[in-house]
């Protein structure tokens, strides 16, 4: 990963992702928060079923679009985090270090929120 990407991961909060629709097969682009913890990138959202998550479960290859301090498109691979203990640890760390996550109900997020680990390919 280059220096500009590392810098953007450290300071940015919003990206776009383009997934492939699980039913349509068409590209779907949305804006989403990302989280960068311990040199690992995560995607997560409020508790609910999400189309972007269903698309990534069907096809884990997607595009990660930097759009704040850096404009760059990067191919990526999504790995769902499903183990409750791991999810709890990740969400607890998010709650501890990110002001925007301070309010979350940890147990609800563990039970109902999607959590995806991102690897650039």
What topology emerges from the helices and strands here?
Layout: H1 3-11, E1 14-20, E2 27-37, E3 40-44, H2 51-58, E4 61-66, E5 72-80, H3 84-97, H4 106-112, E6 115-120
Antiparallel strand pairs: 1-2, 1-4, 2-3, 3-6, 4-5, 5-6
Describe this protein's structure:
It is built from 4 helices and 6 strands, in the order αβββαββααβ. The chain is of the alpha+beta class. Strand 2 and strand 3 (40-44) form a beta hairpin. Helix 3 (84-97) packs across helix 4 (106-112). The chain is globular and about 35 Å long. The N and C termini lie close together (10 Å).
Structure at a glance:
The chain is of the alpha+beta class and 121 residues long. Helix content is 31%, strand content 36%.
What is the subunit organization of this protein?
single chain
Helix and strand run: HEEEHEEHHE
Shape: globular
Low-confidence stretches: none
What topology, given as strand order, has the largest sheet? 1-2-3-6-5-4
Number of helices: 4
Can you count the beta strands?
Answer: 6
**Structure class:** alpha+beta
Computed Rg: 14 Å
How is the biggest beta sheet arranged? 6 strands, antiparallel, barrel
Helix fraction?
A: 25-40%
What distance lies between the first and last C-alpha atoms, to the nearest angstrom? 10 Å
Calculate the mean pLDDT score and round it: 96
| Strand residue content | 35-45%
């Amino acid at each position: 990963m280059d220096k500009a990407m590392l810098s953007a991961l450290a300071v940015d909060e919003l990206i776009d992702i383009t997934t492939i629709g699980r039913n349509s097969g068409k590209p779907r682009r949305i804006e989403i928060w990302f989280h960068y913890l311990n040199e690992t990138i995560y995607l997560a959202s409020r508790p609910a079923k999400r189309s972007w998550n269903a698309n990534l479960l069907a096809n884990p290859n997607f595009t990660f679009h930097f759009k704040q301090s850096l404009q760059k498109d990067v191919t990526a691979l999504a790995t769902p985090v499903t183990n409750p203990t791991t999810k709890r640890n990740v969400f607890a760390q998010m709650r501890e270090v990110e002001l925007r996550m301070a309010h979350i109900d940890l147990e609800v997020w563990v039970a109902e929120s999607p959590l995806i680990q991102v690897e650039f390919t």
